[in-house]
Amino acid sequence: MADLESVPAAPSGARYAIIVLTAMNLLNYIDRYVPSAVKPLFQKELGFTDAQTAYPLTAFVLVYMLTSPIFGSLADRMSRKTLIALGVALWSLATAGGALATGLTTFILARALVGVGEAAYATIAPSLISDYFPPGRRNRMLTIFYVAIPVGAALGFTLGGLIGNAYGWRAALLIVGLPGLIAAGLALLIKEPVRGGFDPVPAPAIPSWPDALRLLRRTAPYLFAVTGYIAVTWAGGGMADWFATYLVRIRGMDLSAAAGMTGAATVVGGLAGTLTGGLMADRLKGKTRSPYFALSCLTMIPAAGFALLALTAGNRIVITAAIVLAQFFMWCYNGPINAIIVNSVPAGMRARAVSMSILSIHLFGDAISPTIIGVISDRTGNLFSGMVLIPVMMLLGAAIWGIGWRRLRE
To answer: Residue 63: which CATH number?
Structure first.
């Protein structure tokens, strides 16, 4: 592979696009996780069972994943920045609109609309980034982009806990939702890059959906990446939605402290893990035949061990250290696995490849994990019985990526 000095410079507007898209990703995850931070508050006011508290998140994820292929198809043919702007505006208004919920149905509706808006953005942004930079730099750029996930999730928990404790859960949703309208306006100033401009051969004609699906089924790196991603997303979704509540109920912490610990662990561990994973994956090139799979596999194993320790430890210092380390190792996969996804397919179907990965990881991952954990808790009377599945699914993801590491060359 040519070194970075020999590749063409990124087109005009690339830096602005990365900054704006990363800022949007930050807001994306703030809005996504604030409801999890204030779960005990709306559960008490609206009279939800444990399982019912997970339904709004499940509704969000279901709509998010089902509409992602629609936006993936549109993005391969239409102005991507316009679709992104519309999506950001919709999810921001829907997040704020959740403050008006009066029961389960209206709360679910608001969160479902958030899913539509976020699908437009999350499906399209990686394809834009891949057209701004050559393959050798995409892992690095996607790592920057995905750094916003743990930071945004942490801010969602922290802001949700602080605002929720001081002013209530409705105020928390309203305050974090509206700033996204500014980001929607900034999206319209992004310059559209040439599709496939950095690919070694000219981009082929845009394939039909049946042809695209057949190609994805035949692309082994894509399949291994997404299948392991499903298991890890199951674990991450369950942890994100339930860990703060677990600390309140099982360890006797107050909501602000529990949400603060969860948020701090996510931002410290997640930020460090995402950056470290992206850097180390590139440094493994030439030392192992599938460096991105290798890094993702090897870091997910200690993530599972520390997640189990965080659930079983009784000492608050040990819990804090364990959850930080679990988040650190768990987030190392983010840039490398998403780089495999965009690098393994032609430019004319990258948005659809991303959309199908989104559909898959949420359909079989965090669309069901919070509800499964809640149902197990309701039936056993023991929240730990459901939470213990989190490290199990992390190990499953590590095993799948380990097979990809040993069998494939990226």
So the answer is: 1.20.1250.20
Closest to 320 measured CA to CA, from 231, 247, 407:
247
Determine the pLDDT at residue 333.
94
Q: Which two tokens stand for residue 54?
A: 């997970």
Structure tokens at 238: 């369950």
- For tokens 């991507």, the residue is 80
Residues 354, 120: Cα–Cα separation, whole Å? 11
In whole angstroms, what is the distance from residue 89 CA to residue 179 CA? 9
> pLDDT tens across 1-32, in order?
444 444 556 667 888 999 999 999 999 889 88
Which residue would you say has higher pLDDT here, 7 or 108? 108
Residue-range definition of the domain harbouring residue 25: 13-192+209-407
For residue 260, name the pLDDT band (cuts at 50, 70, 90): confident
Q: What are the angstrom distances between the C-alpha of 83 and each of 21, 59, 116, 128, 407?
A: 13, 22, 11, 12, 38
Lookup: tokens for 148: 């916003």
285 DSSP β-pair partners:
288
Which of 12-21, 95-104, 304-313, 361-370 has maximum average pLDDT? Answer: 304-313
CA pair distance 156, 162, nearest whole angstrom: 10
**How far is the C-alpha of 249 from the C-alpha of 258, rounded, in Å?**
10
Determine the length of the chain.
410
pLDDT over 70, % of the chain: 95
Structural domain count of the chain: 1
Please give the Cα distance from 12 to 7 (Å, whole number): 15
The per-residue pLDDT for 5 is 41
**Residue 151 has which token pair?**
């930071």
317 class by beta-carbon count within 10 Å (0-12 exposed, 13-18 middle, 19+ buried): exposed
1 within domain boundaries: no
Residue listed under structure tokens 């605002």 = 163
